[in-house]
Design a protein that fits this description.
Elements lengths: L1 E6 L2 E6 L9 E11 L1 H9 L11 E9 L11 E4 L9 H4 L7 H5 L14 E5 L3 E3 L6 H4 L2 H13 L7 E5 L3 H12 L3 E5 L3 H9 L3 E3 L5 H8 L6 E4 L5 H9 L5 E4 L11 H7 L2 E4 L5 H12 L13 E2 L3 H6 L10 E4 L3
Parallel strand pairs: 8-9, 8-11, 9-10, 11-12, 12-13, 14-15
Antiparallel strand pairs: 1-2, 3-4, 3-6, 3-15, 4-5, 5-7
Helix pairs in contact: 5-6, 5-11
Amino acid sequence: MRAAILSNGRFSVDTVPDPTPEPKAVVLSVSACGLCGTDHSIYSNRLLENGAILGHELAGTVVEVGRGVREWTAGDRAAVVPIPYCGRCELCTSGKQNLCGPGLAAMMGCGGAPGGLAEFVSAPVSSLRRLPGMLEPRLGALVEPLAVAWHAVRLGNIRPGTRVGVLGLGPLGLFAGLIARQKGALVFGTDYRAHRVAGAHALGLGAFTADDQPDDRIRDLTRGGPEVVFEASGRPESIERAAHLARVGGSVVLVASYHSPAEMTPGHWFNRGISLLPSIAYTQTDFEEALDAIATRRIDVGPLVIQPRPLDDVQAVFDSFSTQTDAVKLVIDPSV
C-alpha cells in the first residue's frame, strides 16, 4: 500500500507492506483522515521516530477481518476511536477515561499503531464505531475532533443561557461554539484570521476579528463577560487573555495544545475566582455522542470541509498548515 511516511522532518509517499488483521481486529480502507494541530506539532517538533505514519482522525471501510470477528464484515463503514483505553486503571474506572495514560501513549498515529495517512490501516474492533449509511466518509473523519470539543463543552458545564466566549475559531473552537449553541448557550468568538471569522458567521455564530476590539465587544454583548471561555487558539499568551475576558467567577477551558511556556498572573485568577479547566481528549461516551450529533445533523460539520486532498499532497498541506485559507478543516483521502 501507499503511505505518507514521516522521516527527518519531511513526508514521502512510499510503498509499504499492507497491514494484516490481528485476532479481534480488522483492516480498513481509509476513506478520509483529518489533520489537526497535534499532527502539526508532531511534524514540526519531530516528536516521533523516523518511519512514523500519522493520522488519528479517520474513517474507512472494512476490507478484511481477523480471527474471531463476527460483528463486522467487508463493506461495513466505521469511524475509529484512536485511543486504546486500558479500561483497568483508576482513571478509566472513575469516569476520567480521557486521561488514561497507557491509552494516550499508544494513540494511533501519535506514537502508537500506524495512523490513517495510508491506504489501509489495522484497527481492533473495540475501536470501531459504525457509520450510518447516509453519512459521507469525510464527515466520519470529523467525529474524533468533534469528540474533543464535546468533552470540553461537557467540562465547561454548558447550560441553556450560558454566556460563552471562544478564542480561536479553528476546528476545535468552531466545534466548541456549535456544541455550546446546540445546548442553548449564547456564543461569541474571535480570531485574527478574517476567513475564520467569516466561516463562523456562515455557521451562525457571532464572531469578531482583531480589528473589531473583540474582547470589549464580547464583554458588552455578554453583559460583563462570558461565564465560560474556551481557549482554542493554542497561543500561550491567550490563556491569560481568556482570564481577563471571563466574568468574575467564570471558567477558562483549555481545548488546544500548548508547546511553549505561558505567562500567567495567579493573583488575577485568584482575586476574580476564575477556574482553569484543561480539557484533553474525550471518553468513549463523548465520541459516541459526537458521532450521533453528526449523523443526525444536530451539528452540521459539512461546511467545514472542502474537497479532501490526495495522499500525494500531504507535504504541501503541512507546509501551508498555518497559512491555508481555502478550508477550515484539512482532510486527506488516501484512496485517490
